[in-house]
Every structure is written in structure tokens, then in C-alpha cells.
Design a protein that fits this description.
mainly alpha, 15 helices
Length: 299
């Protein structure tokens, strides 16, 4: 298995955990998407702890602008995501997220000159379908069709696809760590722009001053895991195709199901997963699709 595939699969595994943590944070501890997004932008500066190891240098004005802009796009993509978590549970949100990259191969070819084998494009769409199918529960299609979260996740997903295209471009023109750090700096600036609005700034200060130690641990733990996932997916992007790396993020649905089943055994009041014969058959088919798609893109 190629190195980029390993890193591209590690990221959604970590994000499956952070999705559950984000849902609890948004609905119990910090009930405002702008405050959560601002914290995410600030905590991302922890990446600069690696400067003594990997260095940090000026990338040139063009890459600087693109890197900063990419970081800002990422931060603002988080706002509708956190808002959607207040409307739907994590599994539905991830399902909606998995639908958006359908046009990514076209834009990757247009802006990055990316060309894949036809069989790899087939694998891309098979993985997209498997990622959506594995999240299917009773009446899930009805929930998605009428969900207020669908527009929010469409916006978030499209912004993230734009972010990954920009991120890939940065890594084509910069060493990985230098590009990654400049993008994180862009996310920090994006978080600062949220605080330019007095209402958001006041709410952020109030929440920061009133956070319990439990809430702070959950917030820091989730964002540190997210930062590790960002490093992993960024490294995968620096090595592989943005289209194929993005497709493997749909394994997040599979990892989420696995973690929810595990956690529901030990914390049944907090996590539960509906499992019956029909649903298990559906999930088994979805897993086969995901694995088959993974095989095709690895050819």
C-alpha cells in the first residue's frame, strides 16, 4: 500500500473521533458555532511547535497569499459544520459531507492539471457511494431530504473542497511543513476576523472565561486530534492526488460506525447505534464498496 493512502486513511479515523467530540461540545459545552470555530483557529497555532525541527521561511508572495487564503477558507468552512451538528447527529452530518466532492475531479483537472486512470475515477465514485451507504439508517433518506443541515453541509463541503485544492497547490510549490504552517497561520487570521464582530468577540470572551476544566479538556483534546488529522491529510495531499485523497475521507463514515459501536458498549447512555439485520446487510455491502474502491484507486 502506498504511503499517501495510509495517511489519507489515518485522518478520517481521527476525524470520526473528533466528530463525536465536536457534537458533544456544540450541543452541551459551547453552544455557538462561531466561538467553536474561533477556538479551532487559535489552537491550530500549536503546529508552530514544530518550527525548531522543520523551520519556517517566507514562501514568496504568491504562495503566501494562497496559503493565507486557504487557511481562512478552512476556518469559515467550520462555521456551517458546527451549526449543522446542532441540527443533526454526527452520522447524518458526515453523510451530507460525503456527497459534496462529486465535482472535485473536474476542478482538480482544471486547476491542477490532475489526470487519473479511468479505473481510479471509478474507484473515487464507488468510495463516495459506499461512504454514503454505510451511514444509512431507518428513514435516513427522509431525514436528509428534509434536514435543515443539508444546505449548511453543502456550503461547508464545497468550501472544504476548495480548501483542499488550494492546499494541494501550496504543497506543489512548497515543502510540506512550510506550507502547512503558513496555512495554519491563515486559519488563525480567519479566526481573528470572526472576533472583529463585537457580538462574537463578547460571546467568545464570556465563553472563554466560563469554560469548565472538563469542557476545556474536551475542546483541547478534540482540536489536538484534529490538528494531527490535518497534518496527516496534508501529508497525503503532498504525496498523492487531491481527488483520491478526498475520496478516502469517506471512510470516515465507516470509522464513525466502528467507534460508536465500541463506545455504545461502555457508554450506552451517551452513544448508541441502531443495528438490525437489514441495516447490517446494508453496512456490509457498503464496506465491500469502500474496500473495492480503495483497491481500484491503489492500482
Amino acid at each position: 500500500m502506498e504511503t499517501w493512502i495510509i495517511f489519507a486513511l489515518l485522518a478520517p479515523a481521527l476525524w470520526a473521533i473528533t466528530n463525536m467530540m465536536d457534537s458533544k461540545l456544540r450541543n452541551v459545552h459551547i453552544q455557538n458555532e462561531f466561538v467553536l470555530t474561533t477556538f479551532a483557529g487559535f489552537i491550530g497555532l500549536l503546529a508552530f511547535l514544530f518550527v525548531p525541527i522543520y523551520g519556517f521561511s517566507f514562501p514568496g508572495i504568491n504562495i503566501l497569499v494562497i496559503s493565507i487564503f486557504a487557511g481562512i477558507v478552512y476556518i469559515y468552512a467550520m462555521v456551517p459544520y458546527f451549526k449543522a451538528l446542532a441540527i443533526e447527529d454526527a452520522s447524518v452530518v458526515i453523510t451530507l459531507w460525503g456527497i459534496t466532492p462529486i465535482l472535485l475531479p473536474f476542478f482538480a483537472k482544471l486547476f491542477l492539471g490532475e489526470n487519473l486512470l479511468m479505473i481510479q475515477y471509478l474507484g473515487f465514485f464507488i468510495i463516495l457511494g459506499g461512504g454514503v451507504l454505510i451511514s444509512v439508517k431507518r428513514n435516513v433518506l427522509k431525514k436528509i431530504h428534509f434536514s435543515k443541515a443539508i444546505l449548511l453541509m453543502l456550503i461547508s463541503g464545497l468550501m472544504l473542497d476548495a480548501y483542499y485544492l488550494l492546499e494541494k497547490y501550496v504543497y506543489q510549490n512548497q515543502p510540506f511543513w512550510n506550507g502547512f504552517l503558513w496555512i495554519r497561520l491563515g486559519s488563525f487570521f480567519g479566526a481573528l476576523t470572526i472576533l472583529l464582530i463585537p457580538r462574537h468577540r463578547k460571546l467568545f470572551v464570556n465563553v472563554k472565561n466560563s469554560l469548565s476544566s472538563k469542557s476545556m479538556r474536551l475542546l483541547l483534546g478534540g482540536e489536538v486530534l484534529n490538528l494531527i488529522a490535518m497534518v496527516s491529510i496534508g501529508f497525503a495531499l503532498s504525496l498523492g492526488s487531491v481527488t483520491l485523497v478526498r475520496s478516502l475521507m469517506n471512510f470516515q463514515s465507516l470509522f464513525l460506525i466502528i467507534f460508536v459501536i465500541i463506545f455504545s458498549k461502555y457508554f450506552p447512555r451517551l452513544y448508541k447505534e441502531e443495528l438490525n439485520k437489514n441495516i447490517m446487510v446494508t453496512k456490509f455491502i457498503a464496506v465491500l464498496l469502500l474496500l473495492f474502491g480503495l483497491y481500484l484507486i491503489g492500482i
